[in-house]
Amino acid sequence: MKKAAVSHHEAEVRELRADPELAVAYLKAAMASLDDPEDRAAGLLALRTVAEAYGGLGAVAAEAGISRESLYRALSPRGNPTLKTLVAVLKTVGMRLSVEPEHRESA
Question: What InterPro entries does this protein map onto (predicted)?
């Protein structure tokens, strides 16, 4: 009997759902990409993946007080979510924004 194939995305969602610390580390690393306009899509898609892991986009949107369509659009590769949307989604999945100093090499 053959095992059903699981997509990389499905496996990723399952791992993030099972390990909240991994979800935080995953999202933290991906959010660093938001600084680079050429790589911004990676951060938005990572937040979307975490939202899928924590109940699905529909449930997260409802709890965050955002329409599902707006959340899909905001967390798409070309999305441009507002600060209000980012904060609401992060809060819904049990996370929050924080600020860290940028690590710069000394001259």
Answer: HI1420, Lambda_DNA-bd_dom_sf
Per-residue pLDDT of the chain (107 residues; tens, 9 = 90+): 666 678 999 999 999 999 999 999 999 888 888 778 888 888 899 999 999 999 999 999 999 999 999 999 999 999 999 999 999 999 999 999 888 887 777 65
**78, part of any domain:** yes
**Residue 104 is assigned to a structural domain of this protein:** no
Query: 47 lies in which domain range?
Result: 9-92
Assess if residue 1 is contained within a domain: no
Total tally of structural domains belonging to the chain: 1
Nearest to 71 by CA among 37, 47, 53: 47
What pTM, to 2 d.p., does this model score?
0.84
